[in-house]
Amino acid sequence: MALAVTRGQSVALYTMQPESRYYTSQRLKMHYLVWGDETKPPLILIHGTRDHARSWDRTAEALIDRYCVYAPDLRGHGDSAWATGGDYSIIDYALDIHALGEAIGRAPYTIVGHSLGGGVALQYAGTFPEKVAKLVSIEGLGGLGWSHGQRRPAHVRMRQWVESMRKLEGRELRTYSTVDEATQRMVEANRHLSPELARHLTLTGTRQTGDGLTWKFDNFTHAGSPYEFNMEDARDLWNQIRCPMLIIWGEESWGARFNTMDLDLSAFHDYRAIKVEQAGHWVHHDQFEVFISHVNEFLDE
What we know:
Helices cover 34% and strands 22% of the residues. By secondary structure, the protein is of the alpha/beta class. The chain has a single domain (12-146, 154-168, 225-300), classed as Alpha/Beta hydrolase fold, catalytic domain (Rossmann fold). The chain has an 8-stranded mixed sheet, with helices on both faces. A 3-stranded antiparallel sheet has the order 9-11-10. The radius of gyration is 19 Å and the shape is globular. The protein starts with a strand and ends with a helix.
């Protein structure tokens, strides 16, 4: 399928189809993709909330000259199993990445994570610092911004969580009658997407049901947690990370709370932070050439 690299630029083709593989974590059947030659160093790509492994196609093809690229579908996403009871916390995702690393058996890994995937990568790297060689976090530090807000009382958080989980039990999967209809929803979510990329993400991120097309993610991935972001624990984990880090942020991302340049990054040791202009939350889609240029420079050091 032909895909535009960025708006106004020439069309590039995804010439390689990844290989699908599976592993098990917490009794769930988990899916991941493999691109390239496994004699080359391993690199893991971790997607964000309600996304999927195929959203990394351009990134994978740009890196397979030097790496064998692995991209998992997180639990409840893509072609991985849905968690019984809707258990989707960052610690569960981090456990799944550890299980993936054991299944691949090629540590230490270079890891690139977006949004939730960036946060999961930080959890993993802080727990097993010896297993991560380099780390790129794209929009993956949102919790740092939240920590400056006023914490809600525990009884309020618990009640709101219980009520939200009960509502999710009755929530139906949204269906679309055509690919074009679903693609339009994709464009509404990210105005930076080219029509070609939006269609590709839709085709790879939906499945056909009797009622029409539905997104592959579980509705319960919308669930929050009654236990708010714990900055003390997070900083302790992040302080264990010893590998070089590249932190990438989109200039047009969601709200001032996501402004990395105004946040305290002192828990990290060896890092640099880069803001990409004319990019929102999905920097690797919105400004791919700028994004991959920064990543290549970092990985080549």
